[in-house]
Amino acid sequence: MIFSGTIQRLLYLVLLLSSFSQQGFAQSKSSFVWNILPHSSIMIYGCSNVNTFGCSSTGAFKSRPIEGVAGKGNVNLKGSIAIAINQLDCKNKMLNRDLRKTLKAEEYPTLTINFINLERMPLLNTNSDIVCGTVQIELAGKRKNFSLRYVLTKTKEGLLLEGGRTFTFSDFDLKPPHKIGGLVKVKDKFDVNFALHLSFDFFS
C-alpha cells in the first residue's frame, strides 16, 4: 500500500510539472521573429459631416521582420511596415486625391509603422491573446509614439496580428481635407488599422 501510494504521488507530480511546462511555454521563450506575409493589409477610416469612408491597401508595402527580445518588464521590438500613400485606395478618385494632398504624399510618400515594444511576451498556448504595446507612426514628416492594443490569433500559416488606433490630423500637424467650398468637411479624427499575417519562430 505504501509503495502504491508513492507511485500515485510520483505520477501526480509528473502530470503537475507537465501542466506547468505547457502553460509556461510562451513565457519560457526569450526572443522571436515574426515575418510579415504579402497578403497583410493596412486600412484608414474616416468620416465627414456627410458620410464615412475607408481607404485600404493589401500587399503593396515594404516590411522588415518584427524581432522581439524579452527585457525587464517588457519585450523590445524591431521591425516595421511601410506603405506608399498613393497605394491607399478609397474607391473614389476625388477622395484619393484629397487624401494624398492632405497627407502630403508628394513630399512624404510613405506611412510607416515601427514596432517598439510589447508589455510582455505573447501567450501562444491558447488560440488568441491580447497584449498592449507601443508603435511609432511616421506620417507627413512627423514621428510620434502611440500605445495600442494587439490581438494575436493563431492561424494555419502562423499568426494574425491585428491592431489599430484613432488619431487626429492635428497629431501630425495636418488639416482635414474639405471640398465644395467647405460645405463637406472631413472630421479631425481618423482610424489606422492593420491586419498582419505572420509566420514566426521562437528562440529560447
How would you characterize this protein structure?
This protein is of the alpha+beta class. The chain has helices at residues 2-23, 25-28, 93-102; strands at residues 31-36, 41-48, 52-58, 61-70, 75-84, 110-118, 128-139, 142-154, 159-168, 178-179, 184-203. It has an eight-stranded antiparallel β-barrel. The chain is elongated. The relative contact order is 0.20. Mean pLDDT is 83; it is low at 10-28.
Q: How much helix, percentage-wise, in residues?
A: 10-25%
Would you tell me the overall average pLDDT?
A: 83
Task: Please give the CATH class.
Answer: Mainly Beta
Through-space gap between termini: 43 Å
- Structural class, judged by helices and strands? alpha+beta
Rg (C-alpha, Å): 22 Å
Structural domains: how many: 1
Q: How would you name the CATH homologous superfamily?
A: Lipid/polyisoprenoid-binding, YceI-like
The backbone outline, from C-alpha atoms, is elongated
Largest sheet report: 8 strands, antiparallel, barrel
Q: What's the tally of helices?
A: 3
Order of helices and strands: HHEEEEEHEEEEEE
Sheet-strand content, in percent, reads over 45%
The tally of beta strands, per DSSP, is 11
Query: Any idea what the CATH architecture is?
Result: Beta Barrel
CATH-defined fold name: Lipocalin
Order of adjacent strands in the largest pleated sheet: 1-4-5-6-7-8-9-11
Secondary structure: elements and pairs:
Layout: H1 2-23, H2 25-28, E1 31-36, E2 41-48, E3 52-58, E4 61-70, E5 75-84, H3 93-102, E6 110-118, E7 128-139, E8 142-154, E9 159-168, E10 178-179, E11 184-203
Antiparallel strand pairs: 1-4, 1-11, 2-3, 2-11, 4-5, 5-6, 6-7, 7-8, 8-9, 9-11, 10-11
